[in-house]
Specification:
The structure is a single chain. Helices cover about 65% and strands about 0% of the residues. It is built from eleven helices and no strands. α1 crosses α3.
Length: about 270
Amino acid sequence: MIDTLQNFGWHWLHSFRSEMTRYLFGAAGVAILYWVFRHWTASRRIQARAATMADRRREFLLSVQTVAVFGLVNLITVVGINAGVIHIDTAAPNLAIFAGQLLVMVIAHDTWFYWMHRALHLRALFRRAHAKHHLSRTPTSWASYAFAPIESAFESLYVPVLLFGISLVAPVYPLAIFLFLGHQIARNAIGHSGHELAWSGFTRSRWTGWLTTTTHHDLHHSEGRYNFGLYFTWWDRMMGTEHPHYHAKFEGVAGRGRAAAALKSAAVAG
């Protein structure tokens, strides 16, 4: 019994360290990059209000709590692997299967997130599970994991459920998991960054309009009733939950960035 508890404790600590490292690379990495290039990103701020240090401190502390919960839920994955219901393949990956697994992980996660997110906004769950995340009315990249424990558990359950589902078809490649988790925190940190880096016309293009932007998620934080998607705009458009002024709001911010770039170029030329 003691050996089992020690083993679980070691796995929790390993998971905590790994997820905390990912979070810091994502949240701090985006914050540092935006600060380094602040002369370019300043004009691309979405909201007039700037987040305070108190906001960032709250987001960080909630995120540490979330990472701890992620580590606990990840023990389900450990048990699944030990029980033989989750199969991991450490051999050199078959590229077609690897690409398919990665694609499924991202698309299925967007679906999981959309419907879980919609559920968290139900009156019965919002105050207990999601209100803390919405304290960030002007979010920063540090809000990427700023969840209450219930939401943290819902968020992280996706991984063992996904790995079990894929294992019914083929063993899971660790590299696919690693890249999926890296993509997840990168998109999450950028989506909460409060600065729109995409170019004018992005949301209307047939090639890029199906991808969410920072403005897309920022509108969710500032108004709450729209834009529940994570990576893609598909579900919001199909379910009628895309903000009615999303495109106009996006163009307003992207247009400011374009105008600032033009003025800078003119000043340099002059």
